[in-house]
Amino acid sequence: MKGANFRYLIAAAGFLTTLCLGTLYAWSIFMPSLQAEFGWSRATVTVPFTVAGLVFAFGMVPAGRIQDLKGPRPLIVFSAVASVVGYGLSAMAQNLAWLIISYGIIMGAAMAAGYSAVVAGGLKWFPDIKGTATGILVGGFGASAAVFGPIAHYAVREFGWRNAFWALGIAFAAIIALCSFVIVNPPKGWKPAGWDPSKAKGLRKPSPEYTGYEFPFKSMLQTPQFWLMWTQFILILCGGFSIIVHLRPLALELGLSQAAATGLVAIISLSNLSGRFFLSPLSDAIGRLKSFTLVGILMASATAAAPLAAIYNMPGLLYFSAIVGGVAFGGYLGLSPAFTADSWGMKNVGVNYGAMLTAWGIASFIGPYFTGLIRDTTGSYNPAYLVWVAACIPAIVFTEILVKPAHLKALAAKLGVPRAENA
Description:
mainly alpha
């Protein structure tokens, strides 16, 4: 059996892997160059990003099943190979269909495989601090645009977007391949030495949402709690994706310089990382559902700030939107794997969280595309952002009123779901 500290090495390798895969969030850096070369509209240039998000999210279900059955290593190796192939082919793109296949489909598959391996495989080493662990494991996804965004911006400016794609693909493939030697599933029945969930205190005690049941995939889909949280996922993240993809172009329209607008991308990324690092451990202390409510309030505030910045010509409000929206977005993605493991069990968390993350894919399509379409149609981003403010209201209601852990435990007994080994 691996040493007691081995799980922290896995967390570090997981962070590095998601750091490489998270450059999806820096897509806005490539948008102006692609528009200039191909003459695409604002809505059209988001299509490869959107397809990548959909493939990533829906690919998480089969990837999660493979992870639960075969472990994370085959998925991470595939992710490394697909990264260099996807970016390499994207560098040679001649039209939209080409870029949809190379970046949207191939890179989307690379992200699904790597992300599933890291989240599901890594989370199984941390049954005592699920929120804290997921914040670290997926933190790289949030930090990626801050780390690689300035590098990509420099590479695009000095060497062109095609060479930038080549450089990213080669570097990421090498890093992810090295991480594949570290990330493995724990032995069956493993738990931290001396940890007893029935006696644990502080951050290491089970959250209020912990049910103690191991829901198979099909049983989870029979619970209304899953569908409520899945819908909440979409409602909150549509606004977040609109901020990630369109805040930089909005900043340029309001008169910010190229450097300042690119700085917003880095701020969103660092805030995204902060949300994962701080809201996830907070959920270990106060519970996942209260943390989800906080995220909904933060996202409503962030999406309201963007149109106010345009209406009152106050570009400074865009920084508020970037910081608060990034924290909310990252916090939600840090909370959701831990909530899934608490509610439906750790045994099948790969495929179960994969199903939950399909909502991320839908939001990645609806949010940026709808916002870009409204901008192209009306000449303003304001109506779209106001829609995302309103969407946060039912999302908060779902958390506060409709999702009750006691109801889920009753359904588990009714469906014949087995108890968890450590329950």
